[in-house]
Inverse folding.
């Protein structure tokens, strides 16, 4: 169980330790903001997480849709193949459902623990933090630091994205008993958008699929 879990005493609306991060908007580094002038509107409520819902088409996970909190507007679509040694690459493609433009891809390797991410054409290695851990980390161009996805929760189906200071950036909660919903993702800073949100979604989708593959290979079922 991660250190962030200690601050989450009750299930329900997630509680997030530490101050939320400012919302970066573009590569290569975090957005820098100047002090607000008195005439500017109030800053967004960064303590209100942004919630994304993830649904699958049918009983498989080959095609999924990520919607906004109201569940009315598709924000991302995910298409994936089997991920076996014989399947074509990339194994996952995340795209804009309106324009069908590719946002990112995910490629797994049978003989390496490193997962290859590509976000807006930029390759990003997604690296295991050790053979005895279930954590994966990457150097984030959008946030300007190294971020880590790690498993959380009693059943290991919940995932959290943290920075070097153990502050939560996002959380994925798997839907174990739903036939149509894969889960939902809470983004701590509600104003995060653009390439920073794309990065969270692509890396999070890679981590979710990696955990599904791990459970399938260990004979424990695919889970969420």
């Amino acid at each position: 169980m991660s250190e962030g879990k200690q601050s989450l005493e009750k299930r329900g609306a997630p509680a997030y330790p530490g101050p939320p991060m400012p919302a970066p908007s573009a590569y290569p580094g975090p957005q820098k903001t100047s002090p607000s002038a008195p005439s500017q509107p109030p800053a967004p409520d960064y303590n209100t997480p942004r919630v994304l819902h993830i649904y699958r088409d049918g009983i498989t996970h080959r095609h999924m849709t990520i919607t906004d909190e109201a569940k009315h507007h598709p924000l991302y679509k995910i298409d994936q193949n089997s991920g076996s040694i014989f399947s074509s690459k990339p194994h996952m493609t995340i795209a804009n459902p309106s324009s069908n433009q590719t946002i990112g891809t995910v490629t797994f390797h049978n003989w390496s623990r490193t997962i290859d991410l590509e976000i807006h054409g930029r390759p990003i290695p997604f690296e295991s933090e050790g053979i005895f851990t279930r954590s994966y980390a990457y150097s984030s161009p959008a946030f300007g630091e190294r971020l880590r996805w790690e498993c959380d929760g009693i059943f290991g189906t919940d995932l959290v994205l943290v920075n070097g200071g153990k502050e939560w950036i996002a959380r994925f909660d798997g839907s174990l008993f739903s036939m149509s919903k894969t889960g939902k993702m809470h983004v701590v800073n509600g104003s995060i958008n653009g390439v920073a949100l794309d990065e969270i979604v692509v890396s999070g989708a890679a981590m979710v699929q990696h955990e599904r593959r791990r459970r399938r290979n260990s004979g424990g079922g695919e889970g969420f």
About this structure: The CA atoms of residues 103 and 188 lie 22 Å apart. The helical segments are 194-217. Residues 1-26, 28-45 have pLDDT under 50 and may be disordered. The longest strand covers residues 145-152.
